[in-house]
Specification:
Distance between the termini: 51 Å
Structural class: mainly beta
CATH topology: Outer membrane phospholipase (ompla), Chain C
Order of helices and strands: HEEEEEEEEHEEHEEEHHEEEEE
CATH class: Mainly Beta
Helix content: 10-25%
Number of helices: 5
Number of strands: 18
Strand order of the largest sheet: 2-5-6-7-8-12-13-14-15-16-17-18
Strand content: over 45%
Length: 413
C-alpha cells in the first residue's frame, strides 16, 4: 500500500507543472469533431443531397436479389436470384435518381492537452455520428428504392493537429421501400397462398428467368444486408497544408449477425451453441422463422467451403483516400478520391462460390467541388460537388448491384 501511495505521489509531482500552468482544458459539444468526414466516402456521416445519372444500363438498380428454393421431384437447392421489380426500371431513359442523406458527426466531450516542452498537443474526444439514407427513382412514381441507417459511437485521439485516430462501434442496416417490394411481388407473380419450404410460389419464374419447366420456384425472402455491430478503426493525417490522407477498416464483431448467409464466416462463434441451439451460420441460413431456408446439405457444404479460409475471411471492409483543398478568398476548392475494398466480394454473392482466390470487390469515387462557410460559420460549410462513382448502389440493400454514375449535389457538414 505504501509503495502504491509513493508511486501516486511521484506521478502527481511529475505532472504538477502541467496542471499548474493550466495545460488541460475541457469542452462539451465541440463545433467540429476531431475526425473529419471524408468528402468522397459514400458512407461518411454527413448530410447530402444529389442527383445521380447512371452511365451504364447494366449497372443501375434493376433487380432485387431474393433467396429462391428450386423444388424438384428428387431434391431441392437454394440460390440467390436477381429478380426484376418493374418494367420502368429496365427502360434505357430511366436512369436518373435522387440521393438523400441526413447525418452528422458530433464531438460530445473533449479533453485537450496544450502540449508541454517535448510533448505535443493532444486531444481526446467522445464521438457520436450517424445518418439516415435513401435513394429515389426519378421516373415512374418516384418510389424510394430503400432506406438505411448507420450510427457510430466511439472516440477520437489527435496528436499535434496532424494525426487523428478513431475507433468505436459501427452499426448499419436497412430495408427496401414498401412500394418497390409490392411491385416486386406483383411483377414476379409471387403467390403467398401457395407455399413450400418457408417460401411462396413464383408463378412467373420460368417465363422471366428461364427456370426449368418441371421445377417450381419459391421465394423465401428478398435478401437483406445487415451487419449488426462492427468495430470501426481509422487513421487520418494532415500531411501538408491542404492535403489530408486517411485509411479505415471495418471488422464485423464475433459473433455478428451477418446477412445473407453466404457472407457469414463459418468460424464465427455462436454464443448460445452450448445450450444446444443451432450454430450462427445455420441460424441465418437454416429453417428458423427468419432464416433463409437453405437445404441442409447445401448449408453444410457452404459452411465447409467457408472454413477453407482458415479464419482469413471476416467480411472486412477497408477503404482509404485523400483530399486536397485550396482557399481562394470567398471559398475553398477541393478534390478528393475514395477507394473501398469489400472482402465479401470473394463470395461472388452466391452460395457455393466462395474462394480465397476471388478478388475483393472494389468501389472508386472521385470528384471535387467548392466549399463555402455555412450561415457565416467557420466551423460548418456547404459543399457544392460533383463525383464519378464506380461501385455499389449508394444504399446498403443494393450491396450486390453495381452502379456506374455521375452525381451533382450539395453536402452540409
Amino acid at each position: 500500500m505504501k509503495k502504491i501511495f509513493l508511486l501516486f505521489v511521484l506521478v502527481a509531482f511529475a505532472f504538477a507543472p502541467l496542471f499548474a500552468e493550466s495545460l488541460f482544458s475541457f469542452s462539451v459539444l465541440a463545433d467540429t469533431p476531431l475526425y473529419k468526414e471524408s468528402s468522397a466516402d459514400p458512407y461518411a456521416f454527413n448530410s447530402h443531397l444529389s442527383v445521380i445519372r447512371a452511365l451504364d444500363e447494366n449497372n443501375k438498380p434493376r433487380t432485387i436479389k431474393g433467396v429462391v428454393v428450386e423444388h424438384g421431384s428428387s431434391s431441392d437447392r437454394a440460390f440467390y436470384a436477381d429478380m426484376y421489380f418493374m418494367d420502368e426500371a429496365l427502360k434505357d431513359k430511366n436512369n436518373m435518381y435522387l440521393h438523400m442523406k441526413g447525418g452528422t458527426s458530433v464531438g460530445l466531450l473533449r479533453t485537450s492537452f496544450k502540449g508541454y516542452e517535448w510533448v505535443p498537443e493532444i486531444d481526446f474526444e467522445v464521438n457520436l455520428a450517424g445518418y439516415i439514407n435513401t435513394v429515389f427513382n426519378l421516373f415512374s412514381k418516384n418510389e424510394a428504392l430503400a432506406f438505411d441507417g448507420s450510427y457510430f459511437l466511439g472516440g477520437s485521439l489527435r496528436f499535434g493537429n496532424m494525426i487523428t485516430l478513431r475507433g468505436g462501434v459501427h452499426h448499419f442496416s436497412g430495408h427496401y421501400g414498401d412500394e418497390v417490394i409490392n411491385k416486386y411481388y406483383a411483377y414476379n407473380a409471387v403467390d403467398h397462398g401457395t407455399t413450400y419450404g418457408g417460401g411462396s410460389l413464383i408463378k412467373n419464374y420460368q417465363d422471366l428467368y428461364g427456370g426449368e419447366a418441371d421445377k417450381e420456384y419459391y421465394l423465401i425472402e428478398p435478401v437483406e444486408y445487415v451487419r449488426d455491430n462492427s468495430w470501426l478503426l481509422a487513421i487520418q493525417a494532415d500531411v501538408i497544408d491542404g492535403l489530408r490522407v486517411y485509411a479505415e477498416t471495418e471488422i464485423p464483431m464475433n459473433p455478428s449477425w451477418l446477412r445473407p448467409v453466404v457472407h457469414c464466416p463459418a468460424d464465427y462463434r455462436n454464443m448460445v451453441k452450448e445450450e444446444g441451439r443451432p450454430t450462427l451460420i445455420s441460424r441465418i441460413g437454416g429453417d428458423a422463422s427468419d432464416g433463409e431456408h437453405v437445404p441442409s446439405d447445401q448449408l453444410e457444404a457452404q459452411e465447409e467451403l467457408m472454413r477453407t479460409a482458415n479464419g482469413a475471411y471476416k467480411a472486412l471492409r477497408i477503404h482509404f483516400g485523400a483530399e486536397y483543398r485550396y482557399s481562394f478568398g470567398f471559398g475553398t476548392a477541393f478534390a478528393a478520391f475514395d477507394l473501398q475494398l469489400h472482402q465479401d466480394g470473394q463470395t461472388l454473392h452466391q452460395l457455393g462460390t466462395y474462394s480465397k482466390s476471388n478478388p475483393w470487390e472494389t468501389e472508386l469515387t472521385i470528384g471535387g467541388g467548392v466549399e463555402f462557410p455555412a450561415f457565416s460559420s467557420e466551423s460548418h460549410v456547404i459543399r457544392v460537388e460533383a463525383y464519378y462513382h464506380n461501385g455499389r448502389v449508394p444504399s446498403v440493400q443494393w450491396f450486390y448491384q453495381r452502379m456506374n454514375y455521375v452525381s451533382v449535389g450539395f453536402t452540409f457538414i
